[in-house]
């Protein structure tokens, strides 16, 4: 009888212990925040009326990748350049492009003169994108590009509003500000893309800005191109700019060697460079 009671007590204790173990909540798994390839939207704001909704194209490439910051032209928006920007994304680059508060195509208070404030907007967005995408962007490999007023904005980032984080730039139909400041700071390779028939930003204005650059530089001339050379010759512009990024941001010397061929492959453009 004593032995039976003892066995019953031991069984009770064991059962109670098992119940205690199984009733404990399992440890919580640490949540991992990942941003998949594709596009993401961010609502940045520099203060006041300077809302900067930003679209980011993320590549499938693993690890920290270079960032290309893109500025749109007057009465435009980032999606208008999707064909070119997705080509850069497919090549493994992160691309971030905001809508500028007073110059995009649905700006509630449109003001073309507001481009003088856009370099500061650009610097703010770059900072915020780095915060929003930790681990996805290499902060030592950041570049800037833009079209028309966006190219003027980009030139500002290499001159009067120099952002030393920038390692390279692409200027599509770009010129300097009306009161230009000299290119300054650490030398960074710049590639100009210009249609020779452009009447909005003339060939002479673009080449004048190019002549002011004392760093490694290139000038992709499209003889029959107008103000939208990336649409006049999309394949040429995409191939040339992509290999430029591969060289300038990834250190790919083979891509650098391909640049003249990229530019002239269709017989519709030519590259002058001191790269």
Architecture overview:
This protein is of the alpha/beta class. It has one domain (36-273): 3-Layer(aba) Sandwich (Rossmann fold), CATH 3.40.50.1820. The chain is 36% helix and 23% strand. It contains eight helices and nine strands. α2 packs across α7 (234-250). The termini are far apart. Residues 1-34 have low confidence and may be disordered.
The rounded Rg comes to 26 Å
Main sheet: strands, sense, barrel: 9 strands, mixed
Provide the succession of SSEs.
HEEEHEHEHEEHEHHHE
Give the percentage of residues in beta strands.
Answer: 15-25%
* CATH class term: Alpha Beta
* Unreliable residue runs: 1-34
User: What is the architecture at the second tier of CATH?
Assistant: 3-Layer(aba) Sandwich
- Helix share bin: 25-40%
Question: At the fourth CATH level, what is the homologous superfamily?
Answer: Alpha/Beta hydrolase fold, catalytic domain
Total of helices: 8
CATH topology: Rossmann fold
Distance between the termini: 97 Å
Which of globular, elongated, flat, extended, rod-shaped describes the shape? globular
Mean pLDDT: 89
Compute the number of structural domains.
Answer: 1
Structure summary, number of beta strands? 9
Given helix and strand content, the structural type is alpha/beta
Adjacency order of strands in the biggest sheet: 1-2-4-3-5-6-7-8-9
């Amino acid at each position: 009888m004593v032995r039976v009671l003892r066995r019953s007590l031991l069984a009770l204790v064991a059962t109670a212990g098992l119940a205690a173990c199984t009733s404990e909540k399992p440890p919580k798994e640490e949540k991992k925040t990942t941003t998949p390839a594709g596009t993401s939207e961010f609502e940045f704001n520099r203060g006041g009326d300077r809302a900067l909704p930003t679209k980011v194209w993320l590549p499938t490439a693993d690890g920290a990748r270079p960032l290309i910051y893109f500025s749109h032209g007057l009465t435009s928006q980032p999606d208008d350049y999707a064909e070119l920007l997705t080509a850069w994304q497919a090549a493994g680059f992160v691309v971030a492009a905001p809508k500028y508060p007073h110059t995009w195509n649905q700006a509630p208070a449109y003001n073309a003169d507001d481009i003088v404030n856009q370099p500061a907007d650009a610097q703010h967005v770059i900072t915020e994108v780095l915060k929003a995408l930790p681990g996805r962007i290499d902060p030592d490999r950041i570049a800037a590009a833009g079209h028309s007023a966006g190219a003027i904005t980009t030139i500002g980032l290499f001159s009067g509003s120099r952002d030393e984080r920038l390692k390279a730039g692409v200027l599509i139909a770009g010129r300097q500000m009306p009161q230009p400041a000299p290119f300054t700071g650490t030398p960074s390779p710049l590639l100009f893309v210009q249609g020779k028939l452009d009447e909005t930003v003339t060939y002479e204005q673009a080449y004048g800005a190019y002549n002011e650059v004392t760093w490694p530089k290139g000038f992709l001339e499209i003889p029959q191109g107008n103000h939208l050379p990336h649409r006049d010759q999309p394949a040429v512009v995409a191939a040339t700019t992509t290999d430029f990024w591969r060289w300038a941001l990834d250190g790919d010397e083979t891509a650098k060697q391909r640049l003249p061929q990229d530019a002239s492959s269709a017989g519709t453009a030519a590259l002058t460079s001191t790269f």
